[in-house]
Specification:
The complex is a heterodimer of chains A (399) and B (875). Helix content of chain A is 7%, strand content 47%. Chain A is mainly beta. In chain A, strand 18 and strand 19 form a beta hairpin. The relative contact order of chain A is 0.16. In chain B, helix 26 runs parallel beside helix 29. Classes of the chains: A mainly beta (399), B alpha+beta (875).
Chain lengths: 399, 875
C-alpha cells in the first residue's frame, strides 16, 4: 500500500492563516530525493515484532497510520470516521549526523495528521502538527510500542509478540478521540513478503505491514458550535493499522494515487491502490491484497482489479475528488459501489488531500477508508495557491 | 497691501530673515532630534521585545539556570497547551567587530509559526537561495538565519560562516537562510538578530546540560527523557476567558517550584519604566534648548517690528486697525515659523540619527542590549516638532505683535517712552520673577514618594526658577549698567560709558539678549557641574571598590550589568596561580521578577568584601555577619527603586519559589543604576543550583606585581575562553570611559543649547544696533569715527556677555544643585558629592563673553559701515 507521503520538509505553516508560507516540494521530490546514506528497501527481509512496530531511523520516511469507522453505542446511531497518523522523516542520514551536545538537536522530524469526521453532523475536523524527534516533543519506540507527537499518541495497550493492541489518543480542532484497538487478525505482510515495490527501479520500494482489522472501542469527543469541548460519545467499530517505511518509492511522472482500505461484512479485508500517471493512467505497479476472515492473504496485481470514478465532489479549494467509485475484483467475485460517507473530508494540510470514511455496497456490504491525493496538489498549482494565500493574507492582515 | 509689505520686508532683509528662520529651526531641531532619538530608542526596545516575544500571551520563566528543557513537552502533553514555543535568548559579539553586539534568538522553527511569523521565510522564497531548508536549519550545528539587511551589514552571504563570541567563547554561525522582512517593522525587529535552532542556542550559551536530570523517566524506554538542558523561557498562547483560565491552572500544576508563568506584556512594560528616568532627563534637556529658543524667537520677531515701527505707524494712519497690525505681525512670525519649523524638522531628523546612536549606546551600556539603531520617524515626534516650532513662534510673537499694534499713527512712537516704562517697571517685573523663583523652589521642596512622577515636578520647579530668574534680568541689568558705567568709562573712555548707557537705554532688547545667554550658559554650568559632581563621586567610589589588583571576566554585552559565565576550570586555575594572595569570585545573576529584572551580585561576603563599600544604612561589620544568616545587602539605587530600607525584608524568586530575605545594610554603589542585591555565595548556592562565576578579582601576593599577574592570567586563559583581564587601573579607566560615554548625549545637548543662545544674542544685538541706527548716525554726524562706533558696539556686547556670564554662575549652580540633589535623587536615588569646579565657572563666563563678542562682530562691522546721511534721511 502507498499512503500519503510525509511532505514534512515543507514547514512553518501549521494552522496560522496569516503566516507567510514556504513553497512546497513535490511528492516525487520527497519520495525520490537524495537517498545517499540511507538504507533502502531493496530486498525481502524477515520481519520481527515488536522491533518492527518501532522506528527504522536508517530509512528516510516512515509512518504509523490508523483509520477506521466507529458507531456511537449510546443509541443515537451516530457514526464517525477517524484518522490517526504519525509520520517520521529523517533530516539527515546517520552518516551525516553531527555530534551534538544539546538534547534538542534532532535528526528526525515528526508530523501528525489527525482527523475526525462527524458523519451525521456533516462536520470534519482535521489538524496537522510538526515537531522534532527530541526533547520529548515527538518520537517512537518499539518497547513499548509507541509513536507520538505532543499529545497525539499511539501506545501498546498490552504485551504482544505479533499484532499489538493499541491505545490511540488524538485531537483535531477541538474534536478528540481515545480508542482501544484490539487486532482480531495476525499481522499481514503486504506486497512480496512485506516488500512493496512502488517504482520500477530496485530500492524504489517500501517495507509494509498491516493490522487490517482491529476491534475498537472508546470515546469520541466533539466540540460544540462555539468550539468549546462539547459531548463525549462512547463508540465501537473497526480500525486498520498500516505501517510502512522506505527511503525512496515514487518514480517521476506519478501524479497521485487512490487508496482503499475496506472492511467487508463477510470478514474479508480488501486493500487496493492505484498509482496514477499523467492523464490519470493507472501505473502497472498498482497493487492490492485481500485478507480472508482467518487472516490468509492473497496478493492482487494491477490487472486483477479496476477502480472507476462514478461521481465527483468539488472541494472549496477547487479540487474535484471522485467520491463515488465502482470497485471490481473479478477473481474475488467483488463488484462494489464505494461512496464517501462525508464528501467534505479534505485535509487542508501542507499538502491537500482527501481522506475519509466510505460505505461499501454491492456484492458485499461493508465500510472502510479512502485516500485520494494529487487532485489538488500538483506542485505548480500548489505554488500558485500558496502565492495567492500569502497575498490575500497580507491584505487581510493589513486590514 | 499688508501682505506685500510683509513679503517685501522679509525679502529685503535676507540675512535677518535667514537668522530668524535659523533660530526657529535650531530650536525645533533640538527638540525633534531628542524626541526622535528617545522614541526610536524606545521603539527599538519595543521592536526587539516584540521580535523576541512575538504573539505569546504568557511566558514561563525562572528555574535553576533557566526553564527546564523538558517543560515544552510537558506543557503540551500534560497541560494540553496547543501553542508552546521554547526560546533561548542571548547576545554575542561579532568576532571581527567586537563592538558589534547581536542578539541570539534560539527557536524551534516547528513551533514558531503561531508566535513569530516573521521568522518564517516569506513568500517567493524557494528551497534555493532565499528559503530556509528546515532540514539544514535543524541538523547543521550553528545554522543561522539573518535578515538580508543584517547579513549585508555584517558582510556575510548565504553559505558564509560568521564568527561570534558568546560569553567569550568562540562559536561559528553558518548562514543558511536570509529573511526578507515584509515591512519596516519586521526589518527593525530582525535587525542584528541571529536566529538559530534551540539546540544551537543551547550549545552556544552552555545551556545544553540542565541541573536536573531525567531520573524519573521510565527505565528501559528508548524514549528515556534525556537531559534537555535549560531554556531562557517558554512562550505560550493562552486564550482568554474561562478556558484560558483553566489552561493556566493546568500549566501551574505542572510547573516545578521556582518556575512560574506570567503575562508576556509585563516584561516590556517594566523594561520601559527602567529607562523612563533616563529618557525624561533627555527630554528635559531638549526643552532647555527650547526655552532658550523662545527668547530667540521673541527677539527675532521684535526685531522685525522695531525695524518697521514707522511703516506700521503709517499703516495705522491709513486706517489699518490694531487687530490687523497684530495679525500682520503674527502672520509674518508664522511665515518665519513655518519655514523655520520645516527646516528644523529636517535638521532634527539629521541630528536625531546621530543622537539615536548615542542614546541606544547609553541604554546598552546601562540597561539592556538594544539591537536596533535606526531612526524611527514617528509622526508623533514630527507633529510635536511642528507644534513646538509654531507654538513657540506665536508665543514669542505675542508681545512684539502687541507692541506693534500699540504703535499710534501720530508719532510712530519713539521707543524711548516704552523703554522708560520698562525701566520703571523692571523692579516690579523682577518682583514677579522673584516670586516665580520662590514658587519653583517651593515645587522642589514638595516631598515626593519614591518613583512617582517627582522628576516632572522637579523639572517644573527648575523651569520656574529659570524663567523667574530670566525676568529679573532687566532689573539686575539696569543696576549692573549703572555700576558698569564708571568702570567702563575708566577703561574705555567715553565709548565705554556710552556702551554701558546703551544697555540701559534699550533695556528691553539688551535684557532679553542677556537673559537668553544667561539661561544657556547657566544650563552649561548646571549640567557640567552635575556631571563633574557625579564623576568625582564615581572616581571616589571606584577607588574604594576596586581593591584587588587584577579583574578577569568574560566580556559582557551590557557593561554595567555583567553576567557572562567564566569557565569553571579556568576559574579554579586562575585562583590557583602562583602569586595570588586572594581570589574573590563574583557572580552576577539576573532574576526575573514581576517588577522587572533584579541583578544579584554574589560573592563570599566577609568583612574584607563589605569593607570596600561605604554604607548608607547599617554597617559593613553587621552586614558581613548577617550575610551568613541569610541576609542580603542592597545598593542605594536598589533601595530607591523598590523602596526598601535597612531592616526590611525582600522577597526574591529562588529555585524553590519566592523566598524572603532580611536586608542588612544599604551601601553606596554607582555601578548599576537599577540597583543590585549583594548575597553571600554560600547562601546563593543554597537557594540557586547555579554554581557558575561571572568573574574573579585577584589580589597579588607581596612580591608579585599586578602586571605579572595580568600576564600570567592572560596566558592561563589563552585558548580556553576569551576573557578580559584588566589591571585595577585599566578597569578604573574603562569604567570611567563608559561613564563619560553615557554623558555624551548630555554634552551634545548642552552645546546645542549654547548654539541656540549664540544665534539669539546675535539677532538681539543686530536688532539693537539696527534700532539705534539713527542714534548712532547722529553720533557719527557729531564726529564719532566709524572705529569708535565699532568699539562702542564691541564694548557693549562685551559688557553684556560678561554680565550674562556672571549671572549664569549663581543660576547655573542652583541648576546643578537641583539636578544633583533633586532630579538625580528622584531619578536614580544616588547620593552624589556636590563638586563646584572653578574651572567650569571660569569657562562659563568665558563662553558667555566669547559668544557675545562673536555675535557683536557683524553688527559692529555693519554699524561702522553705515552711511550716517542715509540713516538720518529716514527721519
Amino acid at each position: 500500500m502507498l499512503r500519503f507521503a510525509p511532505l514534512a520538509l515543507v514547514l512553518l505553516v501549521a494552522g496560522c492563516t496569516d503566516t507567510p508560507v514556504s513553497a512546497s516540494v513535490s511528492v516525487a521530490d520527497a519520495l525520490s530525493g537524495d537517498t545517499t546514506g540511507y538504507a533502502r528497501a531493496d530486498r525481502v527481509r524477515p520481519f520481527a515484532f515488536p522491533a518492527d512496530h518501532g522506528p527504522h531511523p536508517a530509512f528516510k520516511t516512515e509512518w504509523w497510520y490508523v483509520t477506521g469507522n466507529l458507531r456511537a453505542t449510546d443509541g443515537s446511531g451516530r457514526r464517525f470516521g477517524v484518522q490517526f497518523t504519525v509520520f517520521r522523516s529523517a533530516l539527515a542520514p546517520d552518516s551525516a549526523r553531527a555530534e551534538r551536545a544539546s538534547a534538542w538537536a534532532a535528526t528526525q522530524l515528526y508530523m501528525a495528521h489527525v482527523a475526525v469526521g462527524d458523519i451525521a453532523g456533516r462536520r470534519f475536523f482535521s489538524q496537522e502538527r510538526f515537531a522534532r524527534g527530541a526533547a520529548g516533543l515527538a518520537g517512537a519506540s518499539a518497547e513499548p510500542v509507541r509513536a507520538f507527537l505532543g499529545s497525539v499518541e499511539m501506545r501498546q495497550a498490552a504485551d504482544a509478540s505479533g499484532a499489538v493492541p493499541l491505545r490511540l489518543v488524538g485531537s483535531a480542532e477541538g474534536a478528540a478521540f481515545a480508542l482501544d484497538a484490539r487486532p482480531v487478525k495476525p499481522v499481514v505482510l503486504q506486497g512480496d513478503r512485506g516488500l512493496s515495490q512502488k517504482g520500477a527501479e530496485a530500492g524504489n520500494a517500501s517495507y509494509y505491514y498491516a493490522q487490517t482489522r482491529m476491534a475498537t472501542t472508546g470515546t469520541v469527543t466533539l466540540p460544540d458550535r462555539d468550539g468549546a469541548a462539547g459531548e463525549t460519545v462512547p463508540v465501537e467499530g473497526l480500525t486498520w493499522l498500516d505501517r510502512e517505511w522506505s527511503t525512496s518509492a515514487l518514480a517521476g511522472g506519478q501524479t497521485g494515487w487512490d487508496w482503499f482500505a475496506l472492511h467487508l461484512d463477510d470478514g474479508r479485508d480488501l486493500m487496493l491502490y492505484q498509482l496514477r500517471g499523467r492523464e490519470g493512467i493507472k501505473d502497472p505497479l498498482s497493487e492490492g491484497s485481500i485478507v480472508d476472515a482467518e487472516g490468509g492473504k492473497t496478493r492482487l496485481a494491477a490487472a486483477a482489479f479496476s477502480l472507476e470514478p462514478v461521481a465527483r465532489w468539488t472541494s472549496p479549494s477547487g479540487a474535484a475528488y471522485p467520491t463515488r467509485w465502482r470497485v471490481r475484483v473479478p477473481s474475488e467475485g467483488l463488484d462494489l459501489a464505494v461512496t464517501a460517507a462525508l464528501d467534505a473530508s479534505e485535509l487542508d494540510a501542507t499538502v491537500r488531500y482527501w481522506e475519509g470514511a466510505v460505505d461499501v455496497a454491492g456484492s458485499v456490504a461493508g465500510s472502510g477508508f479512502l485516500e485520494m491525493t494529487g487532485y489538488a496538489d500538483t506542485p505548480a498549482r500548489r505554488a500558485d495557491a500558496l502565492a495567492r494565500t500569502s497575498t490575500s493574507s497580507a491584505s487581510s492582515s493589513a486590514r | 497691501m499688508l501682505f506685500r509689505s510683509s513679503l517685501r520686508y522679509l525679502l529685503r532683509h535676507p540675512w535677518l530673515t535667514a537668522l530668524s528662520i535659523l533660530g526657529v529651526a535650531v530650536g525645533v531641531a533640538v527638540g525633534v532630534a531628542v524626541d526622535l532619538a528617545n522614541a526610536s530608542a524606545l521603539r527599538a526596545f519595543e521592536l526587539s521585545g516584540e521580535a523576541l516575544t512575538g504573539r505569546a500571551t504568557h511566558q514561563i520563566v525562572g528555574g535553576p539556570g533557566g526553564v527546564p528543557g523538558e517543560m515544552p513537552a510537558r506543557l503540551i502533553r500534560e497541560a494540553g497547551v496547543p501553542n508552546v514555543a521554547p526560546v533561548v535568548e542571548g547576545t554575542a559579539r561579532v568576532a571581527r567587530d567586537s563592538a558589534r553586539v547581536v542578539g541570539i534568538l534560539g527557536v524551534d522553527l516547528l513551533a514558531e509559526a503561531a508566535f513569530r511569523p516573521f521568522v518564517a521565510p516569506g513568500p517567493g522564497t524557494d528551497g534555493g537561495a532565499g528559503g530556509v531548508d528546515p532540514g539544514v536549519f535543524l541538523t547543521v550545528p550553528g545554522a543561522a538565519v539573518l535578515s538580508r539587511g543584517t547579513a549585508d551589514a555584517l558582510g556575510v552571504a548565504l553559505g558564509d560562516t560568521l564568527g561570534l563570541s558568546v560569553d567569550g567563547r568562540p562559536v561559528t554561525a553558518r548562514l543558511v537562510g536570509l529573511l526578507d522582512p515584509a515591512d519596516g517593522r519586521s526589518a527593525s525587529a530582525l535587525s542584528n538578530l541571529v536566529i538559530v535552532d534551540v539546540a544551537t542556542a543551547q550549545e552556544w550559551a552552555g545551556r545544553e546540560s540542565g541541573t536536573t536530570g531525567g531520573e524519573d523517566a521510565p527505565s528501559g524506554s528508548t524514549l528515556r527523557a534525556s537531559d534537555a538542558g535549560t531554556l531562557s523561557r517558554v512562550d505560550l498562547i493562552v486564550p482568554g476567558g474561562a478556558s484560558g483560565a483553566a489552561m493556566l491552572a493546568r500549566v501551574r500544576a505542572v510547573l516545578p517550584p521556582g518556575v512560574e508563568v506570567r503575562p508576556a506584556t509585563g516584561q516590556a512594560e517594566t523594561l520601559r519604566t527602567m529607562t523612563a528616568a533616563f529618557r525624561l532627563n533627555l527630554t528635559a534637556l531638549s526643552l532647555l534648548a527650547l526655552v532658550v529658543g523662545l527668547f530667540l524667537i521673541y527677539n527675532t520677531v521684535t526685531f522685525a517690528v522695531v525695524q518697521r515701527r514707522r511703516v506700521l505707524g503709517t499703516f495705522r494712519a491709513l486706517g489699518v486697525t490694531r487687530g490687523e497690525v497684530f495679525r500682520l505681525v503674527l502672520g509674518e512670525a508664522l511665515a518665519v515659523g513655518v519655514v523655520g519649523t520645516a527646516l528644523g524638522l529636517g535638521l532634527g531628523v539629521a541630528l536625531g540619527s546621530t543622537l539615536v546612536g548615542l542614546v541606544t549606546q547609553t541604554i546598552t551600556d546601562l540597561y539592556f542590549v538594544v539591537r536596533v539603531r535606526e531612526l524611527d520617524l514617528s509622526a508623533g515626534s514630527l507633529l510635536r516638532g511642528v507644534a513646538l516650532g509654531l507654538g513657540a513662534t506665536l508665543l514669542g510673537a505675542l508681545r512684539p505683535g502687541w507692541e506693534a499694534a500699540s504703535v499710534t499713527p501720530a508719532s510712530a512712537l519713539r521707543r524711548s517712552t516704552e523703554e522708560d516704562r520698562l525701566a520703571r517697571g523692571a523692579g516690579r517685573i523682577a518682583a514677579v520673577g522673584a516670586g516665580t523663583m520662590a514658587l519653583g523652589g517651593g515645587l522642589l521642596l514638595i516631598p515626593v514618594p519614591a518613583g512617582s512622577g517627582g522628576i516632572a515636578l522637579a523639572y517644573a520647579g527648575l523651569l520656574a526658577i529659570l524663567v523667574g530668574f530670566a525676568v529679573t534680568v532687566p532689573w539686575l541689568t539696569r543696576g549692573y549698567a549703572a555700576l558698569a558705567r564708571p568702570v567702563a568709562g575708566a577703561l574705555f573712555g567715553p565709548v565705554g560709558r556710552m556702551a554701558a548707557r546703551g544697555i540701559t537705554a534699550s533695556l528691553s532688547r539688551t535684557a532679553v539678549a542677556v537673559a537668553a545667554l544667561t539661561v544657556a550658559v547657566a544650563a552649561t554650568v548646571g549640567v557640567s557641574t552635575m556631571v563633574a559632581s557625579f564623576r568625582t563621586t564615581v572616581v571616589d567610589w571606584l577607588g574604594s571598590v576596586l581593591q584587588a589588583d587584577v579583574y578577569i571576566s568574560p566580556p559582557a554585552a551590557v557593561f554595567r550589568r555583567g553576567g557572562g559565565i567564566l569557565d569553571a576550570g579556568l576559574y579554579a586555575d586562575l585562583a590557583a596561580m602562583p602569586g595570588v594572595a586572594r581570589a574573590d569570585g563574583i557572580r552576577v545573576r539576573t532574576l526575573d521578577t514581576e517588577q522587572g529584572p533584579v541583578d544579584l551580585v554574589v560573592g563570599r561576603v566577609d568583612t574584607v568584601r563589605t569593607g570596600i563599600y561605604r554604607f548608607k544604612e547599617g554597617d559593613a561589620k553587621t552586614a558581613a555577619r548577617d550575610a551568613l544568616r541569610g541576609s542580603v545587602s542592597i545598593s542605594e539605587p536598589f533601595g530607591f527603586r523598590f523602596d526598601v530600607q535597612d531592616g526590611d525584608t525582600l522577597t526574591l524568586p529562588t529555585d524553590a519559589g519566592p523566598r524572603r530575605f532580611p536586608v542588612s545594610g544599604v551601601y553606596y554603589d554607582y555601578g548599576n543604576d537599577l540597583g543590585v542585591v549583594l548575597m553571600d555565595e554560600r547562601m546563593f548556592l543554597r537557594h540557586y543550583r547555579d554554581p557558575g562565576r561571572s568573574g574573579v578579582a585577584l589580589t597579588a601576593a607581596p612580591g608579585t606585581t599586578p602586571e605579572a599577574l595580568v600576564q600570567a592570567a592572560t596566558a592561563v586563559a589563552e585558548g580556553r575562553q576569551q576573557v578580559s583581564v584588566r589591571s585595577n587601573r585599566n578597569l578604573r579607566e574603562t569604567s570611567l570611559a563608559v561613564f563619560d560615554r553615557t554623558f555624551l548625549v548630555t554634552h551634545v545637548l548642552r552645546l546645542l543649547a549654547v548654539g541656540v543662545a549664540f544665534v539669539g544674542v546675535l539677532s538681539a544685538l543686530m536688532a539693537l544696533q539696527l534700532e539705534r541706527r539713527r542714534e548712532l548716525a547722529m553720533l557719527r554726524a557729531q564726529g564719532l569715527t566709524p572705529a569708535e562706533l565699532r568699539r562702542t558696539v564691541v564694548v557693549q556686547t562685551l559688557l553684556m556677555g560678561l554680565w550674562a556670564g556672571v549671572l549664569a554662575v549663581p543660576l547655573g549652580l542652583v541648576l546643578a544643585a537641583v539636578l544633583v540633589f533633586v532630579v538625580n535623587v528622584r531619578s536614580f536615588g544616588w547620593t552624589l558629592a556636590f563638586e563646584v569646579s572653578p574651572l567650569i565657572l571660569g569657562q562659563a563666563v568665558g563662553l558667555a563673553v566669547v559668544a557675545a563678542l562673536l555675535a557683536g562682530l557683524y553688527p559692529a562691522w555693519q554699524m561702522g559701515r553705515a552711511d550716517p546721511a542715509e540713516a538720518l534721511r529716514d527721519d
